Amino acid sequence: MTEKTVTSCACNEVHEDELYERLLTIVKSQRTIPGALIPVLQTTQNLFGYLPQRALHMISKELKIPYSEVAGVVGFYSYFSTTPKGKYTIRVCMGTACYVRGGQDVLKALQKKLQIGVGGTTPDRKYSLEIGRCFGACGLAPVVMVNDETFQSVKPSKVSDILNSFE
Ligand code: FES
C-alpha cells in the first residue's frame, strides 16, 4: 500500500524521520567498506523511492565523499532519480519495433491522459511516465510496462483500460 500525501498530519514527518534514522544506521555500517557509495545509493532509493537532497548530503558527510562526487554518480546512472516517483512507473518502449508500430502514439495517449510528460509524475504520486529501449517482446509491439507487468500490442485507445487496472 502506498503512502498518501497528507501535509497537515505530523505522522508523515515522523515517518520520514524514521527513514532518515534507518539510512543513517545503514550508511554508518558501510563507512569503512570501499566502493560503498553505489550500494548505499541503491538502498537509499529503495528506502525513499528516490534520492532526496537531504539523504545525499547525509551520505556525503557520513562516507566522507564530496557532495559533488555523490551528485556526479547520481547524475551518471539513469537508474537513480532525485525526484519522487509514482507508485506505478509506466515505461513505454521506444525501441525500433515499438516505435514503427505506434509506440509514439501510445506515449502521446498516456501523456494526454495523465497530463504529464516523459520523466514526470502525476501530482497524486500515483504514476510516473518514462520511455524504454526494447523490453524483448518486439514481436508483440508496441509494448508498455507498468512496474513489472508487461502489456503487448497496446493501442492508444486502450491506455485508459491499462490505467484503470491499477486503480
Ligand atoms: S522494440 Fe519494443 S519490445 Fe523490442
Detail the topology: elements first, then pairings.
Elements (H helix, E strand, L loop, with lengths): L9 H21 L6 H12 L4 H11 L3 H10 L11 E6 L2 H19 L12 E6 L11 E3 L2 E3 L7 H6 L3
Parallel strand pairs: 1-2
Antiparallel strand pairs: 1-3, 3-4
Bound molecules: FE2/S2 (inorganic) cluster (FES).
The site of FE2/S2 (inorganic) cluster (FES) has 12 residues, from helix 5.
Question: Would you give an account of this structure?
Answer:
This protein is of the alpha+beta class and 167 residues long. The chain has two domains: 67 residues; 77 residues, Glutaredoxin, CATH 3.40.30.10. It is 47% helix and 11% strand. The chain contains six helices and four strands; from the N terminus they run ααααβαβββα. Strands 2-1-3-4 form a four-stranded mixed sheet, covered by helices on one side. α1 packs parallel to α3. It is elongated. The site of FE2/S2 (inorganic) cluster has 12 residues, from α5.
